[in-house]
Amino acid sequence: MPLTAGQAIHEETSMWDWIARNHQVLGVAANIAMLFVWIAYLQVFVSSYRRQKRPSILVNRGAGSGLEARCLISNMSAEAIYIESLIATVETSQGRWSCPVTELQEGRSDTKLATRQGPLQAGEFVDIGSFQSLVEPVLRRNGELPGGAAPDGLEDLVAFEMKVIAVHGSDDLLAGAVRRFDLIRRRDQLLLRGHEVGTRQIRSRRKREKLRDDVEADL
Predict the structure, then answer these.
(1) Which one, of 213, 180, 172, 214, lies nearest residue 86 by Cα?
(2) What CATH code would you report for 55-217?
(3) Which one of 11, 55, 59, 196 is separated from 81 by 20 to 30 angstroms, measured CA to CA?
(4) Residues β-bridged to residue 202
């Protein structure tokens, strides 16, 4: 049954009377709701800020698909990084070995020819050499590849992994990233294929603290 004009006016008056009696409670509720809205905005802002400040290092393959391809390291962070150490891991059918490959050639006076260390600005990349030039020192160091061995001595390769350790901004902890490449045999050729689409960033505090041990082993 529809309300008469008098009943409608009475209902509206009652509502305003209820609001007037409870305006303090309603004010507190509104302030609490507004507080939750600002907290949500703050969380979004902090989360976005942290993502922008986090280091992001990419390891890619370029200029080829086999061991002759170049290993590229890109700095996709918002700030510059300093490449502190590079650790290569080689997996064959006989075992798995790791060693630093930061230094290129001993006895060179030109720093660019002697080390892969150095700063890398935001958005820049560096070519650290062919994958073969990174694989062979690991195998030689562990006695799996004699000096001067031909490329066909690498037929037992199963996978290659590159770990990049870097200093990022004013962060006390080292930054790190790892990418694994599987070796695929196709038509008597060894082809490199990323085990995953992207590069795995080392984010956890515990794992980043352990990166210092890897750097000390490279000294």
Answers:
(1) 214
(2) 2.60.40
(3) 196
(4) 176
CB 97 within 8 A of CB 90: yes
Question: Exposed, middle or buried by CB within 10 Å (0-12, 13-18, 19+), for 7?
Answer: exposed
Structure-token pair, residue 154: 């690498």
Reported as a single tens digit per residue, the pLDDT across 78-120 is: 888 999 999 999 988 788 888 888 887 544 444 555 688 889 8
CB 77 within 8 A of CB 122: yes
Return the structure tokens found at 34.
């507004």
Joined together, the tokens standing for residue 24 give 């303090």
- Amino acid, res. 177: A
**What is the identity of the amino acid at 155?**
E
Q: Whole-angstrom distance between the N-terminal and C-terminal Cα of the chain?
A: 90
Q: Cα(98)–Cα(217) distance, rounded to whole angstroms? A: 11
pTM of the full structure: 0.70
Per the structure block, which two tokens stand in for 99?
Answer: 């060693």
- Answer whether 140's CB lies under 8 Å from 146's CB: yes
Shortest CA distance to 184 belongs to which of 176, 175, 193, 194? Answer: 193
Q: Per DSSP, which regions of the chain are E strands?
A: 57-62, 70-75, 81-92, 95-100, 118-120, 125-130, 157-168, 175-186, 189-194, 200-202
**Domain spans, the chain:** 5-52, 55-217
Residues in the chain: 219
